Amino acid sequence: MDSPPSSTCRGTTTSGCAARAAATELGVDTGPRTIGDLGIIPLFSWYHKSFDKEKDVSSVRVPSLEMACKDFHACQWPSDLTNDDEALALYFDKLNDKNHDATEEVKSSSKQILTFSHFVPRQELCPEKRMLYYPYLPKVIGSDFLERRLRDIHSNRKDGGACHVFGHTHFCWDSVVDEIRYVQAPLAYPRERKRRMNGEGWLPFCVYRDGFNPEIYPALWSDYYNKNKREPENTQLAPWVASHFARYHKFH
Question: Among 10, 46, 80, 197, whose CB has the most other CB atoms within 10 angstroms?
Answer without folding.
Answer: 46
